[in-house]
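Fold sample X.
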Amino acid sequence: MNNVAELLRLIQNLIRFGAIAEVDHGAAGERLPTVRVRSGDLLTGWLPWAGGRAGTTRDWNPPTVGEQVMILSPGGDLANGVAMPSLFQFSAQPPTNDPGKISRAFPDSALFEYDHANSVLRINLPGSIEITAPGGTQWVGGIQHKGDMQREGSYSQQGGTHTHNGKNTGSDHKHGGIQPGPANTGEPI
């Protein structure tokens, strides 16, 4: 065996760049998620990929075929490598180049973006939002709503005013055309 050639191969394999060729999303309790990476003519075996968190807090954001990654191989042994997603490329550009924003774009055109330069969180979805919070939700600050609204359950308001089409319909509203007896009142004034 040529020790110099073997050492050179191990050094070259310490860090390699490639693209995801296959993704196995794993099976809960049976096998962990893995990827195969193509680097030049080389196709790796199944390697784990590094995620954001994998402790008591865990992230799930699997890489996709074609995504450019770096393989870190301790000791130069690709069989022990880890795929480190991800590197931007011309076919997969960042969702923004604005240093004042943190942004995540999704394949269905959804976008989550925090504009820390202007203190604004933006969520643009082609579908809907589902929130399950048995303890309730709390909104502090004004709410502007456009579109239809359906609701179930009680409604309670403390303080402030309540209007409909510019007319006061709150607890202190007044009616015109009041007559004693069984007559109906006029609309709120």
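Fold sample Y, listed below.
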Amino acid sequence: MPSQSPRAVFRRQLAAASCQIPDISEDYNLPLHVGALFIILAVSFTACVLPIIVVKVPKLRIPPTTLFVVRHFGTGVLIATAFVHLLPTAFISLTDPCLPTFWHETYPAIAGALALAAVFGIIIIQMVLSPGKNCCAFPASMMEKGSVSGRGVLCADPEEETPIPGTLHGRDSSTGRQLQQVTAQSETLEAIERSQTRLSHKHGMVPLTSPIALSMEQKHKKELMQCVLLELGILFHSVFIGMALSVATGNDFIILLIAISFHQSFEGLALGSRIASLTWKPNAYQPWLMALAYGCT
């Protein structure tokens, strides 16, 4: 093997020493860490269950605008946490020199790729689980009849076809023929609109341009799905926050505990407001379990 310079050997030894796990057993305050578990549990559960209690107990007389402001302010905290705190930290952590060369040399943008994949996965889940909608209000058999020909019009009923007036014979460059073509095209478009309106009333269909209204049950399922997806993302995030807090020591632990307490409070208010805004049965236990799950993680 070729001999290496003393400087290269020193750099390798320095990198190996920096990647070793330090001994923190002397600075680790176990009673304070155990107490932090109950602090985070109480703060998180209280913040998440508070909006649910406000909705269940009208005597508190909390204005609805308060829940609206809290819900969207908490959502802003979530977005700010993702882009200001989590994403930069992910880039720093995943490009650490102690990791294999793939992370910090081959593809250092892996953190952004993972974030993009997460967003894409959430969108796919919402598309798959969202209530079904008709992509086209008319059946394919009618759409096949919609080609504009000499007599027919788009989506026209064969019994109610509107003929296009005949055209004059003459040169293509004549002014009269050009005006007649414009008139025939405008009449064709008007006939298409009239035929679509007649078909929508005759067959009980919704025109392509009108929005498709969801039923109350579909709206509830969609809102519930969005709320569950939000909580799953928050729970996944909370697990890693707990791991970061559990290994902190000294003054860093106290500062991180205070910061996470405020952070979990705002997240809990946002999640609890969205849970409370859903329509639940009078004796439903799902809202309370969702709030408890957030506090436990």
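Sample Y note: Residues 133-173 have pLDDT under 50 and may be disordered.
Also: The first helix runs from residue 6 to 18.
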